[in-house]
Design brief:
Layout lengths: L1 H7 L9 H11 L5 H14 L6 H17 L1
Helix pairs in contact: 2-3, 3-4
Length: 71
């Protein structure tokens, strides 16, 4: 997802955290605000030991598909 966004919309600054980048994208492109939501979920999976569910995977896949169709 990040590669698609960086290739077609905006490159993440080296100093930005993933969430800062996601918030910047949401500010610039409100139709992509789902990226910030997914980034917060990623933090939970990565740092809070929350396990991904089938629904979580589907949400990521749907957003990726949306990005691909949009751009």
């Amino acid at each position: 997802i990040v590669k698609v966004i960086e290739k077609r919309i905006l490159v993440r600054k080296a100093s930005q955290t993933p969430l800062e980048f996601a918030r910047r994208i949401a500010f610039m492109r409100p139709e992509l605000s789902g990226f910030a939501t997914l980034t917060r979920q990623y933090y939970q999976f990565r740092y809070d030991d929350r396990q991904m569910t089938v629904d979580d995977v589907s949400e990521f896949e749907e957003f990726y598909k949306y990005l691909r169709e949009m751009f």
